[in-house]
Specification:
The chain is α/β, with parallel strands linked by helices. The protein contains 15 helices and 13 strands.
């Protein structure tokens, strides 16, 4: 890391990050979040970056120039990514890429992975495209941050269900690796370190660096028959695998009693008897929240530590939300823990479209960040994925006022020409404000 001590995905469980609206009760939230919501200041000139997949750049000689024309100086480039079907409207050679499973876009070092239960595989549909894309982009004067997805891996969760989240009913979530599993912690730390050592990497971004859960945006998802609010989804995401059962025991929690309480609360929602599932015992809710928060912090520290061990000079950003119980691509990390002595160089905050919740998250991190630490706001640039072109310039300006030090446009490879024009206009407006 560059410090002295220390991801757009819409799959988060809770958008109201600082609200205390969780299935484990208000006591589960770090009080520092609410204390830091107001008073952020715009401290630095805005940096601008975009997200890209390696196949967006490889084979497109105009890609780098197109990115620079937007006013961007940085590309967050996928090095390890989950299953996706992606449109590539600007690419001259293809228009749709299907990533069949979670994979890496470089050649893994098999000596590093020898004897490990969980191992990455290279993407056969775009082999060794990360180093090629990184070299092309850096040659054009763009910095490259490697984008690494950690606990979201359907291939490994399918092959090794014992290392995936298992809910209170005994159902496994193969897309969600459980961070209480020793094999998962080892896999994620090893993967992050391996990516950090790739050529042409100026920084690293860690997505799903914490608890994943029920929400997934899975192909042909059929889960809307019952409406689960954020507290209910949190209970539906509590894990009861062997690693978590051990963690509950160490925390003084009777895992079987907890499992019964969770099922009882969810059963009422499923039956239509209650709109919300929550643990009614405050002491139990607090104990579970503490156990999960500590596990997430330990996991994050191990991953960041693995990166620092091989590249102490490398900037490390973490996709996060201030709510310590938030799940999925941007899991919970309180400002105090994320920017602590063993923490990250910056937070990447989901700010897809205008919302008070997003502004609150940016302010919370901005108030805690030291001058050398970044608060990156990821903004949706694709109208077809929910982006708001008409409000993009004003939204970016408001995020800057809230304390964002970098605007990240998701996603330059998926964007139409009209989307890119709106990004160009937003960047120009922010820089001339």
């Amino acid at each position: 890391m560059t410090t002295t001590g220390g991801a757009v995905s819409g799959n988060t469980v809770s958008g109201n990050t600082a609200s205390g609206n969780t299935g484990l009760g208000n006591a589960a939230l770090d009080n520092s979040v609410s204390e830091l919501i107001d008073g952020a200041v715009d401290r630095r000139p805005a940096s601008v970056g975009v997200n890209l997949y390696p196949w967006d750049a490889v084979g497109d000689p105009d890609c780098a120039a197109r990115i620079k024309d937007l006013g961007a100086g940085r590309v967050t480039l996928a090095a390890a990514y989950h299953t996706v079907r992606a449109l590539t409207p600007q690419h001259p050679e293809h228009k749709v890429v299907t990533a069949a499973h979670s994979a890496v876009y470089y050649l893994p070092d098999r000596r590093r992975w020898l004897g490990k239960r969980l191992q990455p595989v290279e993407a056969f549909w775009s082999p060794r495209s990360f180093p090629q894309a990184a070299a092309d982009l850096r040659r054009a004067g763009l910095s490259v941050y490697a984008w690494v997805v950690l606990a979201h891996n359907q291939r490994l969760g399918t092959l090794h269900p014992e290392d995936s989240i298992m809910n209170a009913y005994g159902d496994h979530y193969p897309w969600a690796l459980c961070i209480s599993s020793e094999a998962v912690r080892d896999y994620c730390a090893t993967l992050a370190a391996e990516v950090a050592e790739q050529d042409g990497v100026d920084g690293i971004e860690l997505e799903s660096c914490g608890w994943y859960g029920f929400d997934h945006l899975h192909a042909h998802d059929k889960t809307a028959g019952v409406t689960f609010d954020p507290p209910s989804k949190l209970l539906l995401s509590l894990c009861f695998c062997a690693g978590c059962t051990h963690g509950y025991k160490e925390a003084g929690i009777n895992s079987q009693a907890l499992r019964v309480a969770v099922c009882d609360a969810l059963d009422r929602v499923i039956a239509g008897a209650s709109p919300r599932a929550e643990l009614t015992d405050p002491s139990l809710a607090e104990a579970v929240a503490t156990m999960r928060t500590r596990a997430a912090e330990q996991f994050r520290d191990e991953v960041i530590g693995a990166v620092c061990a091989v590249r102490p000079d490398l900037t490390v950003l973490v996709h996060a939300q201030p709510d310590p119980l938030a799940l999925s691509a941007n899991p919970g990390a309180t400002p105090a823990s994320l920017f602590g002595p063993l923490g990250a160089d910056g937070a990447v905050v989901p700010c897809n479209v205008r919302s008070e919740a997003s502004l609150g998250m940016v302010r919370a991190y901005a108030e805690r960040a030291e001058p050398h630490q970044s608060v990156v706001s990821t903004v949706s640039a694709v109208a077809g994925m929910g982006g708001n072109r008409a409000d993009l310039s004003a939204w970016c300006a408001d995020l800057r006022k809230a304390g964002s030090t970098e605007l990240r446009f998701y996603h330059a490879g998926l964007a139409s020409r009209a989307d890119l024009a709106a990004v160009r206009e937003a960047v120009a407006a922010v820089r001339t404000a």
